[in-house]
Amino acid sequence: MKIYTRSGDQGETSLIGGARVPKWHPRLEACGALDELNALLGALRLHTGGEAWLDGRLEAAQWDMFALGTAVADPAGDRAEQRTKLSTGDMEADIDRMLPDGGPRAFLLPAGSERTVAAHQARTVCRRAERLAAQLCSSGEAPQWVGAYLNRLGDWLFAVASCQ
């Protein structure tokens, strides 16, 4: 099987279930942001400093991007059940451990170590994915858990960026 199909050459692509939509469709914008976030989570894994727990959490989040993408790309909602490896509860526990005093009380420049910068890059794309998913969630076109997951992941990435 070849990687190219030519089926998208005219600016359309297929969603789960076969519906054809323009490549600028809101579902595809959200899926694209999730794909970009997945790549940045992978880049952040290069900077875990040998912390196995962090690498494990990031890998779980990468797999979860596929679950979120599936939920967003399925107009029928047949794949809307939450099946994530990393729960929002896990992320909250990690945040509480990383930032026991609640974290910084002011804006931070996304600068410092490679890990800090990579975490902030992932965080900003996560927030974009969250905004795009929120549009779909608010209209009932995507399950609510997608937005909640991305909201918590953005918080979690902020905590990763804030502590070392």
Short descriptors:
164 residues; mainly alpha; Hypothetical Protein Ta1238, Chain: A; two-stranded antiparallel sheet; 5 helices
Helix and strand topology:
Blueprint: E1 12-14, E2 20-22, H1 26-45, H2 52-72, H3 88-98, H4 114-138, H5 144-162
Antiparallel strand pairs: 1-2
Helix pairs in contact: 1-2, 1-4, 3-5, 4-5
Structural description of this entry:
A hairpin with a 5-residue loop joins β1 and β2 (20-22). α1 (26-45) packs antiparallel against α2 (52-72) and α4 runs antiparallel to α5 (144-162). The protein has helices at 26-45, 52-72, 88-98, 114-138, 144-162; strands spanning 12-14, 20-22. The model has no long low-confidence stretch (mean pLDDT 90). The protein has a two-stranded antiparallel ribbon with strand order 1-2. It has one domain: Cobalamin adenosyltransferase-like (Hypothetical Protein Ta1238, Chain: A, Up-down Bundle), CATH 1.20.1200.10. It is 59% helix and 4% strand.
